[in-house]
Structure formats: structure tokens, C-alpha cells
Amino acid sequence: MENVPPPAEELRLIDRELAQLDARRAQLLARRGWLLQTVRPVGAAPADPARTARPGAETSPPSAQNVLLTLGGILLAVAAIAFTLVSWGHLGIGGRALVLGAVTVTALATPAVLLRRGLVSTAESVAALGLLLTVLDAYALHRVAFPGTHPGAYAAVASGVLAALWAGYGPALGTLRLPVPAAVVAAQFPLPLWAVATGSSLWVTAWATLATAALDVAIALVAKRTDVRVLGILGAVTTGGWSLLTGGWLSVSAHSPSLAVEPALLLLAAAGLALCAAWRAPASAPATAMVAGLASVAGVGGVLRAALPAEWAVPAYLLCAVALLAAVRTRAPHGVRTGLAYASGAVHAASAIWAAPAVVLTLLRPAAVLEDVWSGAPAQDVALWGTVAVPVVAATVAVVLWAAPRLLPALALPRTTADCAALALAWSAAVAVPTALSLSYAPTLVLQLLTATAALALAVRPPRTAEATGTSADAGAAGTAGTAEAAAPAGALGTPPGAFAGIALACGLASGTSAAVLGLATRPATFAVLGVLVAVNVAAALLGRGLPRAVVACGAVVGTAGLVAAAAAAAGLPAHQVAIALLAVPAAAALLGARLGRHPVALPVEATAAVAGLLAIALAVPHTPTLALVLALAGVIAAGTSVRAERRPAAGYLAAVLFVAATWVRLAASGVEWPEAYTLPVTVPALAVGALRRRRDPQASSWSAYGPGLTATLVPSLFAAWGDTHWLRPLLLGLAALAVTLAGARLRLQAPLVLGGLTLALDTLHELAPYVVQVVDALPRWLPPALAGLLLLAVGATYEQRLRDARRLRDGLGRMR
Residue 642, SS3? Predict the structure, then answer.
């Protein structure tokens, strides 16, 4: 006898079997598609999806199912909202409770039935509808049962109750994923809404959000699901961030220590919460611990700030950051110590940035002296707001940076980098002292000179390795000095690496420049400051190594030029006569260069002295006779320098140019109308000397042999011809230029060919210019553009040929000497 189940039970069994068959069929279809992709030959055309899919199926079953379920849930939610807001008033109290309660219970109970049948997506949609109905139930309950209750307080209680119900509802059904995240979101509102509803102060509201953040941290640490952990982290960041911002604002706004205690407690509580999270979550420990460190510094530093004068606020926070570094030596997890070190470093960096404007202002204040040189000592500097604390802040950060790599190896801070930053900050502290203490003129100058001297001494001090091994490097042997520097380890104590020496050198130059400018206020101070700077730079150049040695040597040259100019100005000499005195600097540099030979310092010193020579020429420009003398003396110095083999090419050409320029200026200053009477006596001997040189050295260039002599006559004559209205001078100049050009072509000499050809072309252009102008005026306006266009077309059509011609001309000139 068969046991036939009831029709309802049999129908349920059939539906279950069909659902299992559908699921199995979907798995088999997916496996079949993967196998087709695997066994298909390379290069074969892909299978037509229309042939493999079922006829008429335009979407996959899961996608269509999700869309339908989503649309159904949205429609039901809209209907429920419309019923609650619109049709609620048309029912009695019994009908309202019966309808809404029945709908809510049905919506919450249906997912259990659907889950037993394996309809997970449908169950999720119905559960979402049920959660929404619980919110509507809470709203309806407030409208009917508690109409006089404060909306904020009721919303706080309702959100808490709903969060608890949703948190229990999801695990009770087992596989639903939506209720628990929804409970986490709802849990963000009870405490903040209650604090707002009760009219609590901003401080109480911040505590409420901090308590919510603690709940979020607990959820993020305990939850096993990723989406729940993410929501917990987001909630903790949002509510905890609000509490931190509120506590920071209250701490900064506090005007007394008693008022600053409450926000300090809030900030310290937030720091403790963040520290616990960092301890339990190693992955995010550095960032979370950094937040904890900053919150603790803000809280304790706020109390100290309120107890101190306003200008000492930054040192108060900096002191707390220094104390925070003690946590790095504890046995806390590595991520926690790293985050606390980052927090302390951020406060130190912010403090250094705060002090930077005052240092820059102190360095730039002496520039006001340039408006009226030697007018007397400036007025005593008045300390600006906050500048009194600048040296303390800069010195504290410098000490911490110097000590951190040595006392806190766990920080892994490179010693060289820390030493460079510490040096810059220590120099900044010394620079800011005069403004901070409102020192008078004389102490300010002395302190700046001492600062410059100390910085330059650090820049050029010899490596420790050379001292330890007892090796002595000759001051003129650059290779030995380079070897000693290379032998010194970059991180050795007392060894200035390249970066450290560069920072020290920059600090020394900045202080020296500021002191030199400030010394221009009075005549005695000018000579005293420049004299000290020259002596310091000379001593540094004698004791230094490498690039700093060359730089300080150039500084000595600049200081010497300043002393010479100051002495000439003190003697009452006009500017053009000061120029003559300035030529003593390049002359002395040329003698020193001859003594140094090929020493690496020689070239920078001579180049710096050449700049002083250019300054002398610029000062002499208003007085033409003195300018000619200055140019001639500069030519003599350049000619003397050209005697040295290593300077011969550049200095020789420079001497020729200076002598020719001196001749032209002298002729112009004397109002000579026939310069040939003065230039030809120079040109003839110069050409004779050039010919003798070419006979002794056939490889000598024609430019060095004949260039100066030809230029001495052709260029002044060409200038005179362009301003001459008669025909005799242009004719004679053209004939002479033609003869020089033909001689250069015949003897295959580059200089006569080029100089003669250019002079002949310019002279011819000058003579033909009036006639060309007349012809152009007589021609129609459209003709010159048309001719220019035809010329461009012709050149473009024969571009390759013109290019070959230009190359042949270049090669021909290159073969000449």
C-alpha cells in the first residue's frame, strides 16, 4: 500500500525538486561554457551566443530575477509609504493597527519561508521591505500613541530599538545579509540625536558621538563579515572625526586652563580609543596611532596653551610632541610606535613651518638700508607677535632632529638627513634671535657675523677620517682631498657629507650677505663687516676642501671688491673713478691665478673677479674718456692672463676685444673724424706681428694673427662711413675691403676673407641704400611682396641645391685658417 502525501505537501515537494533542477541546470550550463572555451582551437571563431542560449532568452535568469525582485520591492515600498502617509487617517485605530501590524509581520516572516525553499534573493528583497515597514511602524506609532513626544528624542529611542531588532532579526534567519548592516547604520543615531534633543552643549554632543565611535570600533574589531567591518570603520571615522574636530575647536577656543580641561579629556578619550583600535588592528595601526598621538598633543597642549601667554602657544604643543617621542622607546607594537612617531613628526614640522616667516623677515630686513647707504644705524627692531618664541621653537626642533637618530633607532630616520635639517633649524634659531630680543644695531651685526663664521666653519671642516688616520692632504692637491672625502663614511660622526656641507655653506652665505647689507648703514660698520667677511672666507678657503672651498674663495673676492669700492667712495671719488679702483680686484685675481696654476679654485676666483671688472666697466660708461681707460686696463689684465697656457685662447681673444673697444671709445671721446689716422698705425704693426707669428707657427689661426689688426681699422672706418655723407671715405673703405677680401681668398685665410667680405657688403649696402629706397618708392605697392614670394618659391624649389652650396661654403671656410 502506497503512502500518498496530501496535495499541498506534494506540491511543495515538486516545487523544491524543480528549484533544485533549475539550480543544477545553471551549474551545468556554466560548466559547459567553460569547457567550450577550453577545447576550442586557437583562431577558431567564437560560438554564436544565439545558438547556445535558449530561444528567446535575452537575459540570464539571475539578472532577470534580480531586476524583477528589485522592482517588486520598490513598488511595495512605495505602496507602503503611500498607505502610511495618505490612507492612514481613513481607518480607525483598530484597523490601522491590524493592517500595518499584519503587513509588517507578514513581510518579516515571509523570508523564513523563502529561505527554506532556496529563494535567497527573493528573501532579501522581502526582508528589505520588512525593515522599511518597521521604520514606518515607528513613524505611525509616534503619530498615534506619542504625538506629544519630542521628535528628536523619539527618533533617538526608535533608532536604538530598530537597531537592536534588526541586529537580532538577521542572525535569527541565518543567511540574510541586509539586516545586520542596516542595524549598524541605525546604531549611529541614538546617542547624537538624544544629545541634540535634550538641548545639550556641544561638549556633551561630542561625547555622544565619541561613544558612538567606540561602538563602531567594537563592531569593526569583532565583526567577521567584510561589509559590516567596513560600515563600522566608516562610522568610527565619521563620528570619531566629528568628536575630534569639536574637541580641537573647544580646546583652541578655551581662554583659561579650567575651560581647556574638558576638551582635553574628550581628546584624550578619543586618543585612547584610537590607540586601542591601533593595538588590535595591526594593518591600520600607523594611521590610527597617528590620530591618537595628534589628539593627545592637542588635548594636553591646549591646557598648556591656555596657561601661557598667547605667543607661547606653539612651544606648548611642541613640548607635548617631544614628550610623545618617549612612547617610541616602549614595547608597544611596531605599527603603534610608528604612528606615534609620525604624529610627533607632524607637530615638529608644523612648528618649523610656523617659525619660517620670522626667519625670512629677519634676513630681509637689512634690505631697507639700501635706500640710504651710510645714513646711520637703523632704529632698533621691534619684536613682532610670536617672534619671541621663534628661536625656542627652531632650536627645540633642531635638538630633537639631531638626537632622534642617535637615541631612537626605532625611528629609522637617516642620520645625514636629520643632521642637515637640524643644522638649518639651528641656523634659523640664531638668525631669529636679534628680532626676538629686539637687539640694537651693533649686537645684531656681531651675532650675524658669528653665525656666518660658524656655518662656514662647518661647511669647510676637514673629514674626520683624514684626521683619525693622520693623513695630511695638501691644500693644493685636489685629488688627495677628494680621496679623503670619499674615504669618509656618509653617516660617520663628525664627517660632513655633501648635503650637510651644502646646507652649512648656504646658511653661511645667507648670514654673510645679510650682515654685509646691514653693515652699509654706517661707514665704520661697512669696513668692519667686509673686513671680517673677507678674513673668514680666506681662512675657510685655506682650510676647506672641494666645492665649499671654491665658493668661499669667490666670497672672499666679492668681499674684497666691496672693500675697494667702499674705500674709493669714502675717499670722495666719483663713480667713474671708482671703476678704475675696482680693476685692482681682477688684477690681483690674475696674479693669484698665476700663482695657483691649475688649482680648482683658480678658475672660480678669476671668473668672480671678471664680474667685478664688468661692474667697473658699467660704472665708467657715463664718462667716455674713463671708459676708454678702463677698457684698456682691462685689456692689459686679460693680455697678462693670456700668457698662461691654460688661459691663452679665451683671455687672448678677450684682450683683443678690449683693446679694440678701448680704441673705438677713445676715438669717439676725442671727436676724431678721421679714425684711420689713429687706427692704421696700430693695424700695420699688428698685421706684421701676425705675419711673423704665422711664419713661425703655420698652424696658427688667421683670426689670432690678423683678426685684431684688421678689426682695429675696418670697424671704426665702417662706423664712420655710415655716418659720412661724402663719397670719398666709402670709396676708399670699399677698395680696402675688396683688397683684403681678395687677399684672403688668394691666401686661403679665413679671417681676412670674412672680415673684408662683411665690410665690403655693408659698405656697398650703405651706398646703394638711397637708390634702393627711391626704386622701392617708385614701384607699385604690390610688387615687393610679389617679388619676395617669387624669391621664396625659387629658393624652396632649389632648396636641396642651396643646402649643398651652403655646406660647400662652410666646408671651404673650415679648411681655411
Answer: coil
Rounded Cα–Cα distance for residues 297 and 347 (Å)? 8
Rounded Cα distance, 153 and 196, in Å? 8
**Burial class of residue 540 (count of CB atoms within 10 Å of its CB; 0-12, 13-18, 19+):** buried
Query: How far apart (Å, rounded) are the C-alpha atoms in residues 524 and 666?
Result: 38
State yes or no: pLDDT of 213 exceeds 90: yes
Q: Compute the half-sphere exposure of residue 690: CA atoms within 13 Å on the CB side of its CA.
A: 21
Question: Buried b vs exposed e over 58-83: b needs ≥16 C-beta within 10 Å?
Answer: eeeeeeeeeeebeeebeebbeebeeb
Task: Report the interhelical angle of 390-407 vs 334-364 (nearest 10°).
Answer: 140
As a whole number of Å, the end-to-end CA separation of the chain is: 129
Overall average pLDDT of the 759-763 stretch: 84
C-alpha–C-alpha distance, residues 452 and 456, integer Å? 6
Q: How far apart are CA 738 and CA 494, in angstroms?
A: 71
Task: Count other Cβ atoms within 10 Å, centred on residue 143.
Answer: 14
Residue of 72, 76, 130, 70 whose CA lies nearest to 102: 130
The single-letter code of the amino acid at 169 is Y
Distance (Å, whole) CA 777 – CA 76: 93
| Residue 9 burial class via C-beta count within 10 angstroms: exposed 0-12, middle 13-18, buried 19 and up | exposed
CB 208 within 8 A of CB 191: yes
Among 689, 616, 705, smallest CA distance to 653 is for 705
Residues in the chain, total: 817
DSSP 175: S
Distance (Å, whole) CA 455 – CA 511: 9
Contact (Cβ atoms closer than 8 angstroms) between residue 686 and residue 711: no
| Distance between CA atoms of residues 166 and 171, nearest Å | 9
d(CA 314, CA 302): 10
- Whole-prediction pTM value? 0.69
Give the pLDDT mean for 395-417: 87
The C-alpha atoms of residue 518 and residue 498 are separated, in whole angstroms, by 30
CA distances from 499 to 2, 368, 430, 539, 650 (A): 97, 32, 20, 22, 34
Q: Which of 326, 236, 337 is nearest to 286 (CA)?
A: 337
CA dist 138 → 131, 145, 166, 650 (Å): 11, 10, 13, 95
How is residue 423 written as a grid cell?
643644522
Do residues 507 and 424 lie in contact, with contact meaning Cβ atoms separated by under 8 Å?
yes
Q: Of 561 and 114, which is predicted with more confidence?
A: 561
Please say if the pLDDT value at position 182 is more than 80.
yes
Question: How many other C-beta atoms lie within 10 A of the C-beta of residue 113?
Answer: 12
Measured CA distances, 504 to 459, 487, 497, 499, 507 (Å): 5, 21, 11, 9, 5
Q: In 3-state terms, what secondary structure has residue 334?
A: helix
Beta-carbon contacts of residue 663 (< 8 Å; ≥ 6 apart): 628, 678, 679, 682, 712, 716
* Number of neighbouring beta carbons within 10 Å of residue 635: 20
pLDDT at position 54, please?
43
Burial of 422 (0-12, 13-18, 19+ CB in 10 A): buried
Reduced to 3 states, what is the DSSP secondary structure of residue 119? coil
φ/ψ region of 745 (left if φ > 0, alpha if ψ in -120 to 50, else beta) reads alpha
Task: Give the DSSP per-residue string, 387-398.
Answer: GGGHHHHHHHHH
**Percentage of the chain lying above the pLDDT 90 cut:** 29
Cβ-count burial of 358 within 10 angstroms (0-12 exposed, 13-18 middle, 19+ buried)? buried
3-state SS class at 695: helix
User: Which residue, 493, 520, 480, 343, is CA-closest to 406?
Assistant: 493
DSSP 335-378: HHHHHHHHHHHHHHHHHHHHHHHHHHHHHHGGGGGGGSTTS-PP
